[in-house]
Design brief:
By secondary structure, the protein is an all-beta fold. The protein is built from one helix and 14 strands, in the order E-E-E-E-E-E-E-E-E-E-E-E-E-H-E. The longest helix has 5 residues. About 13% of the residues have low confidence.
Length: 223
């Protein structure tokens, strides 16, 4: 449900119904996981979005405050990933969009944080550790196709000390290509979220997973 804009402010409200099996472990016994102040869904029926959208006249800026879909390179808004917080987008410079976001709770719908393993079972459980992000996005249309670039940085308290994502892309009338690189420095200190969720018998009480991880991707396509 969308309310009309009044005094540069609009309100959005959405509900979610999911009739899949509700055999769900929200991870309430582990630090940093649980229902997340409303970022996750409650059973099979709940609020999916509830936010105010502010669009001042004096600048090409949009500010979204409240519960919202998370559309980033590491989340999937179309698959109901969402967070509760604030996101600001600015496009005053032609071709550029700058983003800044802070969320006190968030959810990745395909990931269940449960002891010793992860599952992709659409649990909708959420994480109550703050997530922060900064991004710069550029795009330009030319006679030779659309050229794009984006750079994202993320910090998640007690989970990810730093996560970066960069992309260079080109889309032509028939062919397209993209170079992507992502790097993450995980926080697996004793007592933090990953060490509790993924102990794997590590006597030091740390998560038995690498701290530094990176991924390089080359995409080539044709229509």
């Amino acid at each position: 449900f969308k309310a009309p804009v009044a005094d540069n402010v609009a309100f959005n409200f959405g509900i979610l119904y999911n009739n899949e099996s509700q055999n769900v472990n929200h991870g309430n016994t582990y630090p940093g996981t649980g229902n997340g102040g409303g970022s996750g869904k409650d059973g099979s029926f709940g609020v999916s979005t509830f936010n105010a959208v502010i669009t001042p006249d004096s600048t090409a800026t949009t500010v979204i405050i409240g519960k919202q879909r998370l559309a980033t390179p590491v989340t999937n808004a179309g698959d109901d990933d969402r967070g509760t917080g604030i996101l600001a987008l600015n496009s005053d410079l032609e071709g550029f969009t700058f983003a800044a976001g802070a969320f006190d709770s968030w959810s990745i719908d395909d990931l269940a944080l449960t002891r010793g393993y992860t599952t992709g079972d659409n649990t909708g459980g959420s994480v109550t550790k703050p997530l922060y992000t900064l991004a710069g996005i550029y795009g330009v249309d030319t006679d030779y196709g659309h050229f794009g670039a984006q750079l994202w940085g993320f910090y998640i308290q007690d989970i990810v000390d730093g996560l970066g994502f960069g992309e260079l892309s080109w889309t032509g009338s028939t062919f397209n290509a993209a170079l992507q690189y992502a790097i993450a420095s995980l926080n697996n200190d004793a007592g933090d979220v990953l060490s509790v969720v993924h102990p794997n018998g590590n006597p030091a009480g740390r998560a038995n997973i690498p701290e530094a991880n990176d991924l390089f991707v080359l995409n080539l396509g044709a229509d």
